[in-house]
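Example (one chain per record):
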Amino acid sequence: MLTGVQIVFLGGDARQIEVIRKCSEMDATVSVVGFDNLKEKLQGVTRDHLTAELLAAADVLVLPVVGCDDNGIIHTQFSNESLKLQDEHMAALRRGCKVYTGMAKPYLRSLCAHHEIKLIELLDRDEVAISNSIPTSEGALVMAIQNTDFTIHGSNCMVLGLGRTGFTMAKSLQGLGAKVKVGVRSEKDVARAEVMGWEPFLTRDLADHVRNIDLIFNTIPTMIVTAQILSRMPQSAVIVDLASAPGGCDFRYAEKRGIKALLAPGLPGIVAPKTAGSIIANTLVQLISDEFKTRGDGQ
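Predicted structure:
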């Protein structure tokens, strides 16, 4: 239980609703900011405004999956109000308050470091990232099906990156009967891909493997599908870029060549917000519960 724990939520999308609901059910004292347009009632939750006074009372501050942008702007799907996290807000947090988010950009990391506030990025944790890769891959498959005129079964598919999302993506494509190539960075991952029955290659050799490709699913968050790579691809190919914005594809040149390239970050929150929110909620509640149990044992 989270009885007596003061949690403040700032902004977010439909996933955050599940997290808020779970924290309230666990008897935390919950305040939310940036949900004034949400029509459904959040039982036992107080809707508030972003003030230093509100944050000063918080034991835990929860931000959206992508905490804020590099200017401090927080995404608020359920509000017309602009939320901006500033230095004065972080300064108001009490000592020992922790900030939770999915993934943090440099602005948020810098703010937390400056004020010596512990920042926890939930998507860095295997129990979240591995589970989250399932709605990501399902959403990517939906996008691919909607934007092609051929079946995935029998098609030449490529997955770039063999991290948690890349692995699930390749496995899903294999399950649908696709011919799967996997671009990896290390010899260790070459062996891993071979064991799974995929055709591996090193990403440095990407240009040699794209001439007959139908679908590319990129998970690498650096520019990898460059103009040079795109120039060697068939015009009919479709790229689904799952890396965090701005992605790893030269979208300008793809459009110029007539290749359909789709940037698709945050798919879990779009295709399966309830499931994705529950994944985050379960881990967040466990971490907060463990933290306050430890504090209690130390008193």
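Caption: Residues 33 and 50 are 6 Å apart (CA to CA).
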